[in-house]
TrEMBL record:
Keywords: 2Fe-2S, Iron, Iron-sulfur, Metal-binding. This is Ferredoxin reductase. The keyword Metal-binding applies. The keyword Iron-sulfur applies. Its cofactor is FAD. It comes from the Bacteria. It comes from Geodermatophilus arenarius. InterPro entries: Cbr1-like_FAD-bd_dom (IPR008333), FAD-bd_FR_type (IPR017927), Flavoprot_Pyr_Nucl_cyt_Rdtase (IPR001709), FNR_nucleotide-bd (IPR039261), MRET (IPR050415), OxRdtase_FAD/NAD-bd (IPR001433), Riboflavin_synthase-like_b-brl (IPR017938). PANTHER family: NADH OXIDOREDUCTASE HCR, PROTEIN RFBI. Residues 10-111 form the FAD-binding FR-type domain.
Amino acid sequence: MAGTAVQRRLTWLPATLTGGVAETARVRRLSFEVPGWTGHLPGQHVDLRLTAEDGYTVQRSYSIASAPEEPAVSLLVERLPDGEVSPYLTDELRAGDVLELRGPIGGYFVWSARADSERGERRPVQLVAGGAGVAPFLSMLEHRRRTGGTTPVRLLYSARSAEDLLGRGSLGPETTVTLTRAAPPGWTGPTRRVDRALLEEHAFGPEARPRTFVCGPTYFVEDVATALVDLGHDPSAVRLERFGG
């Protein structure tokens, strides 16, 4: 499946919306049935294409938030007030509507618990997410849970507030959440941005030789990558996925 998911020639497939659930006030989880889907690896993404009646087309890329073991392909779409696509996807798309989907895409930002088991790999995996950048990590965590993976995994997840947390059902004891703008009464977790000190306290240290994945807005990813290298992590073991300006 790994070779097929990464190397096969990509074509546009019809994707029928089977359900939409509000994860937060701004983010909606959309689940699609995609005939001809050959499966994906945790961390891969897809392109969505919309075509207007006048023939105008627009496409956007989204990380896959569902595990490969799930029948539907799920995406987390954040509504951007000035967006050309996201308002339609979050506010107007209804069950039964059909879009075009191409994927899965990417072989760089992927991790598989099953592959680790087959290779006997024991190096830990460190995930660092900013906001909606948690989407590919939800796929990884759910895949690990469903396959009984034993690779040590930690997720350090930065969100604005508790109301902005995504994928609550997939966040287990391996997850540390830091809230950067508002914390509820009784909150005992961190309340600051991910910096060098927070990484030292809650992430695998360089001596553990972790494979590290960082996903989020560009400024977040660049700051975290710099802090990781300053701490002594091997740059070649740090993989980055960024979005936004």
